[in-house]
Description:
Blueprint: H1 2-14, H2 20-44, H3 56-66, H4 84-95, H5 97-107, H6 109-134, H7 140-143, H8 150-164, H9 178-186, H10 196-218, H11 225-235, H12 237-258, H13 266-275, H14 277-286
Amino acid sequence: FVVSGFCIHLSHQRSADPRVSRFYLKRFFRIYPPYLVALLVFSFLPPWSYIPLNSRESITQFLSHVFMVHNYGESTFYGINSTFWSVAVESHLYLIYPLLLAIVHRSGWKTALAISVTTEIGLRGFAAFQFTATENHAPYWMIGAPVFYWFSWSVGAAAADAWLNRRPLPFHRIPLVVFPLLMALTSFFKPLAMFSFVFASLGTVSLIQFLLDRADHAGGIHEGFLLKHLRLAGTVSYSIYLLHFPVLVLVPKIVTKLSPGAGNHPMLLMAACTACWIPVLAGSWVF
Length: 287
């Protein structure tokens, strides 16, 4: 979410046409066509064919994904492809991005971040209290709403804006290790576990700041094999995200069938899934 906010704001600020209508048009054609193709593949083509469309529930499942509102329902949140929930949330964050820009224009980034963090922390606090008190998760219309991740996305946009304007990035004085440590510690305890996502976001911002500072001071970063590979992966990362999970679900089943004696050994399954990176990367580049 942080990287998304960073890239979206960076792209929009560098755009020659800053109109909101142009922004929405670019986002639609960047996000929806490949999403729709992936949705159709995993819904109707073997070996997946998750949606037989022979019941009201399956039709609801499919149509909620077509219109990208599946993130608001418990039965559809992880349906078809478990990673699709965040694609819907991201698209809704894009819809309210102009609201963030309006707040920034009127009151500045500090106010915008204060509003977004209060909103996200408040909702996460309610969800944490409910889960601790009742063992029931908050309703999916809440945890699937874009404002549940508003600060975690907006802080990435703030980091991009700070870098573009050569201002100190958010939280630039806090050591790199602090937020990852808080993320790890809070994840073990109720009700604090609900806030580990926020600390993960802040840790990502700190890492972005560290890498940008190092690149600025060094006059750039030398691109070795690893960085070139990561750049390629970053270029097709959206396609990787759309395609990888159903493949990872399928691979252990294939390995178990091909090797019934040792097919369910954890190390073998892990090796097979890891080996999928190259074909998934190649397929994502084509996609």
